[in-house]
Amino acid sequence: MSIRERMSGNEAIATAMRQINPDVFAMFPITPSTEIPQYFAQYVADGKVDTEFICVESEHSSLSACLGAEAAGARAVTATSSAGLSYMNEVLYVAASLRLPVVLAVACRALTGPININHDYSDSMAERDSGFIQLYGENNQEVYDNYLMAHRIAEHPDVRLPLMICEDGFITSHALENIELEEDDKVKAFVGEYHPENYLLKKENPLAVGPYGVSGYYMEARVAQAYAMKNAKKVILDVAKDFEKTFGRSYGFFEEYKMDDAEIAMVIMGSSAGTAKACVDELRREGIKAGLIKVRVFRPFPGEELSKALSNCKAVAIMDKSEGFSACGGPLFAEVSGACINMDKRPKMVDIVYGLGGRDFTVDAARSVYDRLSSIVETGEVGEIYTHMGQRE
Amino acid sequence: MAYNLKEEMNKAERFHSGHRLCAGCGAGIVCRAMMRAVDPEDRAVICNATGCLEVSSFQYPFTAWEDSYIHTAFENASATASGVEAAYRVMKKKGKIAENENVKILAIGGDGGTYDIGFQSLSGAFERGHDFTYFCYDNNAYMNTGTQRSSATPRFASATTTPSGTESLGKKQNQKDLTQIMVAHGSPYVAQTTLFGNMKDFHEKAHRAIYKEGPTFVNVLTPCPRGWQYPAQDLIAICKAAIDTCVWPLYEVVEGEYHLTYEPKKKLPVEEFMSKQGRFKHLFKPGNEWAIEAAQEYVDTKWEELLQKCK
């Protein structure tokens, strides 16, 4: 039986961690992810987990310690935000290339400057090419569910890649919402024990990890890593299928909201999707064929599937909650528009950068986006492709 | 049991030949000796910082290491070792590693990966008290990138970022005294050694460090033929000159108590050390005598300070 509870996204993640009982948790605090290790520290203090909980001196070291632990044969986790994730940058790439399935919870927060503690995706989007799998949740329930699936995806022999569980800083990490938790033993049974094939502490077979790879070998290693990311697509869906069978909640690469006959649509991520869905409901009541796609899996990017889902739309707005400073659109726009490049009949597409550093995103704001899409459909004129929304001029 | 070089050399090799370190490089000697100090019945995991040793000893698909080995990055050997040690503890607790099995966790880096870029993670791991031993092969500069100065480069040494020239006598600052800093961390065992004689000093210190519980530190002066500019065969003579001039005194600090492990019968002038190396060549030009005097003065002061601590 599921347990009805009420808690924040951070507590939901910490709860999932407690239920999974990882071997090693290396932590360094940063707002708004700090509560995750704090909750966990209490579980350690109360003897609820067997985890070796190490309070290291930086995020660079927290992830490095996770790599050491994971390579040694243990299941390792950590959590961070913003500058902490940036400080890990070097080690993120190492984690992925060493094929160590560390699970990293990210309470997504703006990057400096100016310094800001509120939500956008500048931190996680900056690491989109690090080789981590990235799963995004709309609310505490999705973040919790994503976490329960994380280790099985990351540790799968066809994948063996590290994974980020992304929640929206403060909006999801700190807001209390209803949630259905699963029972401890059922979670443990679903996630299973970690049994790596080769590891440093294996008695029978010493292991060397992290070689110098000259030009004659480097490319093969990188291509193998690229294939692993491709393989992750099937594994993500397989694990989601088993999750649905076990716990009843269904997940795919993205959620399609009223897309069956949608003519105008938004592609969006995280908690903003909830706000935008309310707007879609309003528009539908008015007879406007509006829809929404909420991207859950950003890495691997489900380009083919997404382009199919958009194929019947006439105009689409890609909602970027981070700036890429490319001068031609944010990271989500680059992916989605790129994915649609070979479609015979493409919808018109615009990119809207919104909500930076916690700038509010409202139902009215969503409506203005759909209004713009309607006028694109009416006039056939796209206008400016890449714009910002919600800022003072 | 008394140290016996012959017996030590009969042990199975745990750092193999075929690695790509230069002829006359001290790092390979450090690794062989370090691994001889791990009892044959015990396993080890070596956590290596990026540097010459890493790129030379584990170039895919070959490894010189008999034991398990991990390299992740430059500045995080101690953090990586912390994770390995945490995994070892929890896996023992969970019965995934047998009670009677003994795995020694070793970290090793050059002075760049230890004194400088890796110092934060080193300090953090020592403060937390992980059970591991850190070996620094201190070759006095960033050698893997081509002899740029580090905080371990001694004053007046010419390095590629502090070259000697018409207006320069090389590096302007004295070497950071990392060994003392590690003592200040409250480590149960800290030692300085180098490569000379029958390696008794190195072996005994390495063994004591590895088998002392807690974070322990061994700082090894390790000449580099490219950076120090000496003929390969002079390596041991240079190390011997370093200890006889007291440029690199041999001592250990056990639970905070200082022990001098070598006192030269006759303390030699610093020129004996400097004149064997091209990096100090400019000091021997007329007019630069003051620099050698200043170097001597610094060595004398540090030596006196150490003698006071060892009393």
> Tally the helices of chain B: what do you get?
12
- Number of beta strands of chain B: 12
Order of helices and strands of chain A: EHEHEHEHEHEHEEHEHEEHEEHEHEHE
Rg of chain B (CA only): 19 Å
Number of helices of chain A: 12
Q: Radius of gyration of chain A from the CA trace?
A: 21 Å
Q: What's the oligomerization state? A: heterodimer
Order of helices and strands of chain B: HHEHEEEHEHHEEEHEHEHHEEHH
Please state how the strands of the largest beta sheet of chain B are arranged side by side.
4-1-5-6-10-9-11-12
Outline type of chain A: globular
In the predicted model, the low-confidence regions of chain A spanning at least 5 consecutive residues are none
> Describe the biggest sheet of chain A?
7 strands, mixed
What share of the residues of chain A does DSSP label as strand, in percent? 15-25%
* Biggest interface: A-B, 45 and 48 residues
Strand content of chain B: 15-25%
Overall morphology of chain B:
globular
Q: Give the distance, in angstroms, between the N- and C-terminal Cα atoms of chain B.
A: 27 Å
**What structural category do the secondary elements of chain B indicate?**
alpha/beta
Range of helix content of chain A = 40-55%
Mean pLDDT of chain A: 98
Account of the 3D structure:
The complex is a heterodimer of chains A (393) and B (311). With 393 residues, chain A is α/β, with parallel strands linked by helices. Chain A has twelve helices and 16 strands. A seven-stranded mixed sheet of chain A has the order 3-2-4-5-7-6-13, sandwiched between helices. Chain A is globular and about 70 Å long. The mean pLDDT of chain A is 98. By secondary structure, chain B is α/β, with parallel strands linked by helices. The radius of gyration of chain B is 19 Å and the shape is globular. Chains A and B meet through strand 3, helix 3, helix 4 and strand 9 of A and strand 1, strand 2, strand 4, helix 4 and helix 6 of B.
